Amino acid sequence: MRAIFVRKEEFQVRLVERIEKQINDLSRFTATPGKGTTRLTYSKEDLLTRNYIKDKMMEYELTVREDGLGNIFGKLADTVKDAPSVLIGSHFDSVPNGGAYDGPAGVIVALEVAALFAENRLRPIYPLEIVALIEEEGSRFGGGLMGSRGMAGSLSEEDFKSLKDEDGITTIEAMSKIGLDSSLPKKRAARTIKTFLELHIEQGPILEEKNIPIGVVEAIVGITQLEVTVEGKAGHAGTTPMDRRTDALVTTANIISRLPDLAIEEGEGTVITTGRLHVFPNGANVIPDKVVFSVDIRSGKEEHISRVIKKVHELIDSYQDQGFQTKAEQLLYMPPKILNEEIGALLKEKCADLGIPYCSINSGAGHDAMVFSDVTDVGMLFVPSKAGLSHCPEEYSDARHLANGVQIFYEVAKRLTEV
Ligand code: HGY
Ligand code: MN
Ligand code: MN
Ligand code: MN
User: Fold this and answer.
1) Closest ligand 1 atom to 102 CA
2) pTM of the entire structure?
3) Three-state SS sequence of the chain
């Protein structure tokens, strides 16, 4: 693919090399070496990544702190006391066996913007602040967008404390295991954030197919995540006649096989996915008495999501009269979001000034930017994903595209921080 990049200067080459090195460094912090990135929140891989990010922040002369959720902040020393920050960042956790770019690409780009502020000895009026967010994927505690929701106040302190992973370890216990202080403040007053900017890999094929290096995100799809439980009766696989079974797994299979049609009937890009499933007691010669599985529903319009949620409830309830207990717990509900037009226009203006081709694009993936759009102005850039792949070890984006993002955010940040 012929790459379109801003003119190649020594600075650009050096920036690309620095980005590539940081991507490679961070990709080492995985629980599944050789099988993609598995970096669960508050795990030892989280701790290694966290220390690396904090070292980088200190190298770039930022004041480093962590909040009561474990989000990491690097702030360019205050110039105007209590002025709201221009916050740039993304998340650093991953899905199981994911890629090296989903999240870290945005954290590294943000760090490199701070490096340019430091190198050019800029003294902004509004502070520049870099953030590395936790548990965006929800891979350990479910739901997702936990770091940004905790900051924005849409995840309450008690809900945060009640979250447990599959082994029953709470967020608080897991935090203290890696030396994090969960008693620190979590919610961040909206007046302390002037703008939030996030660069992310597209995780789809559009930019690569159009051969355009930058997407300016205008809207983000709405997402609901349900956790469905089907309870039947355990029994002996050999001695229980077929007509006397209340098999939770067979019923779950029937339910899951009906889900795709619910999205297809809605149309307009509505999608539904079951990605996680647990069978209990999970013995080859035991009729399963319980199954717990995820249902992820997304659409560009809220009406489609709410209709599908209703149909999922009707579907699982229809098994109640066959002796099953069923329930669906809502782990996450995020309506579709339209991002701030002014910030979008500013991003496009800077792309044009830098001679970087761009297009507008919508996101089928969820992002922390959608949470922050409830409390501040938000801007988001996408860079191409090779073959549109993501959430898999094959995920790849060209560091030169990320360098484009650094330069665009650097120009936008100078304007917004009123250097
Ligand atoms: O699921 C998503 O869209 C994001 O990757 N957390
Ligand atoms: Mn992501
Ligand atoms: Mn992701
Ligand atoms: Mn419609």
Assistant:
1) 5
2) 0.94
3) CCCCCCCCCHHHHHHHHHHHHHHHHHHCCCCCCCCCECCCCCCHHHHHHHHHHHHHHHHCCEEEEECCCCCEEEEECCCCCCCCEEEEEEECCCCCCECCCCCHHHHHHHHHHHHHHHHCCCCCCCCEEEEEECCCCCCCCCCCCHHHHHHHCCCCHHHHHHCECCCCCEHHHHHHHCCCCCCCCCCCCHHHEEEEEEEEECCCCHHHHHCCCEEEEEEECEEEEEEEEEECCCEECCCCCHHHCCCHHHHHHHHHHHHHHHHHHHCCCCEEECCCEEEECCCCCEECCEEEEEEEEEECCHHHHHHHHHHHHHHHHCCHHHCCEEEEEEEEEECCEECCHHHHHHHHHHHHHHCCCEEEEEECCCCHHHHHCCCCEEEEEEECCHHHCCCCCCCCCCHHHHHHHHHHHHHHHHHHCCC
